[in-house]
Amino acid sequence: MNILQIGLGPLGLKIANFIAERPGLTTSAAVDKNPNLFGKDLGELAGGKPSGVAVASSISAAVVKNKPDVAVLTTVSDMASITPQIEEILAHGIPIVSTCEELSFPWEAASELAMRIDAAAKAAGVAVLGTGINPGFLMDALPTFLTAVCQDVKTVTVKRYQNAQFRRIPFQKKIGAGLALEQFEHKKQDGSLRHVGLTQSMQLIARRMGWKLDKTEDIISPVVAKNEIVTDAMTIPAGYATGVRQIGNGYVNGVVKIKLEFQASIGEPESYDEVIIDGTPRIQSKIAGGVNGDVATCAITLNAIPQVLRSTPGLKTMVDVAPVSFYS
Amino acid sequence: MNILQIGLGPLGLKIANFIAERPGLTTSAAVDKNPNLFGKDLGELAGGKPSGVAVASSISAAVVKNKPDVAVLTTVSDMASITPQIEEILAHGIPIVSTCEELSFPWEAASELAMRIDAAAKAAGVAVLGTGINPGFLMDALPTFLTAVCQDVKTVTVKRYQNAQFRRIPFQKKIGAGLALEQFEHKKQDGSLRHVGLTQSMQLIARRMGWKLDKTEDIISPVVAKNEIVTDAMTIPAGYATGVRQIGNGYVNGVVKIKLEFQASIGEPESYDEVIIDGTPRIQSKIAGGVNGDVATCAITLNAIPQVLRSTPGLKTMVDVAPVSFYS
């Protein structure tokens, strides 16, 4: 399986390493818009052995020798920016798996762009899928699948709690750990603390349950240190932020039917991913320790490829293609 | 949605009740081979209000007025018996959802019959799906889906433990509770204690992981009372069976890569359904309290209908159609 990797940020490079680990998968071409990367060896950029794949400056240049079987697109998070990139790839007739968060379920928030991509994918005769661990799995596809055993569903609640104490320092900074509350508020206002995808996850669940959401909320607040916390990387005084709490509420007829809780902080007592379905029967499913987002996002992107290749053409979500799984 | 219900045993009648509860679903026709049921009202047979649907003696008679959108087939557990029934339904061009255990993954143990059904379904232009809670979900489709987040999978273990203390007496009898060990052995030999499906579940997982199973085992043993157990329904002396333990082992190159543990007994300390994936990352996912098989089997059968109707034609498994979910 020959893969065209587009976007060589930290995620794209990690995916390149994951591909190198897996028999049967090969990165046959790589593209990034950063001129400093043009011509450099992908394997070396990713911190590994030389791969013989030189970074190309455009998709046309990358596919000139061999047409890849699939493109892995890890560039941007929003539909407005990803759509022309997808259209360019589809012009070459290449199916796409992308980690673009808003692509995971664009049918409500960006329905016109979604229809444009869907039409282009159908014209090209291939499928396009937005995936990832969150959005894409833990807070949408997995809880949706768990409702398969239910004769009735009243509410869906998903909780993703992570202790960031032993995570990478960039992750700790990303969740606002160590910030004074006014700094936290400032970063919240400029959007840099925001995890993209809660709204998409709620809309995917609602679509499948047959619920019409009349309102969604996406609320960010700090987790605040009660006492001073000292880690290898930082000291957090009492009253400062240890991390972020982000809540998604999906309302149907004025009542919260979908509740997504994402909380990542230093000193969080327990890491876990939990789905609670208030229904018949009631389902409470918990992944102890939680799922590491970095590893899982790369893995699910690669694992999705066979189902994208088997899919009917068009823009798909994780509940439109057959259940994704590991394969060897 | 008009449903043709074929097979009016306890499961078929319970499904009829579940259909009656759900807006948008209607049992438009019902068939059973038992002459005592011919002409009787389905709703009354199911213990509810009259439905206006009289039990027909044949599929041809049942569909003469209106062609149903889908057939729900709850008759037998084995491929040899279900195949001609499926072929008869397909001759009318009707898609099928069945609870037949061996149909959940027939591609190894009954590959010729599977190919026959697949060809007939394609000729009819509709899909045929074997589903259920176990096999069909808890021990195969769900663990397979959970591997989506893994870069590597070494082993898959699934544990289904149930305390039968508060279950229906027929269920307690079915699992051998209260039997002397020689009686248990006798019932084990005559096959009446056996839960059908562990082998199919292992084969489904292996197929998706890309593993070639060189051997599967399906081992039944009694759970034995250490002390006397007194319930509303029975007294179990020490040394007698409180229930059944059934283990599925799937070997790849002589090593167990798939382990399925099903244990149902009176006095079982904890009821739960657990999936443990030894991989990168390691995943341990547990449904506390477990999933009630009676409710869930009926629910998942109805919930599968939309994905069967959307599917490409042919014989499908629960990991070939898009993820099944509740809908309203």
Estimated structural class of chain A: alpha/beta
The amount of beta strand of chain A, in percent, is: 25-35%
Total DSSP E strands of chain A: 15
Q: Given the C-alpha coordinates, what overall shape of chain A results? A: globular
Rg of chain A (CA only): 20 Å
- The CATH topology assignment of the largest domain in chain A is Rossmann fold
The DSSP helix count of chain A reads 11
Oligomeric assembly: homodimer
Q: Brief description of this entry?
A:
2 copies of one chain form a homodimer. Chain A is α/β, with parallel strands linked by helices. Helix content of chain A is 29%, strand content 28%.
Describe the structure.
Chain A is α/β, with parallel strands linked by helices and 328 residues long. The first copy, chain A, has eleven helices and 15 strands. In chain A, strands 3-2-1-4-5-6-15 form a seven-stranded parallel beta sheet, sandwiched between helices. In chain A, β1 (2-6), α1 and β2 form a beta-alpha-beta unit. Chain A is globular. β14 of chain A pairs antiparallel with β14 (283-288) of chain B, so a sheet runs across the interface.
What is the strand and helix layout of this fold?
The structure is a homodimer of 328-residue chains.
Chain A: E1 2-6, H1 10-21, E2 26-31, H2 42-45, E3 55-56, H3 59-62, E4 70-73, H4 79-90, E5 96-98, H5 111-124, E6 127-130, H6 141-146, E7 152-163, H7 169-174, H8 181-189, H9 198-209, E8 215-224, E9 229-230, E10 235-236, E11 241-252, E12 255-265, E13 272-280, E14 283-288, H10 293-303, H11 305-310, E15 314-316
Parallel strand pairs in A: 1-2, 1-4, 2-3, 4-5, 5-6, 6-15, 7-12
Antiparallel strand pairs in A: 7-13, 8-11, 9-10, 11-12, 13-14
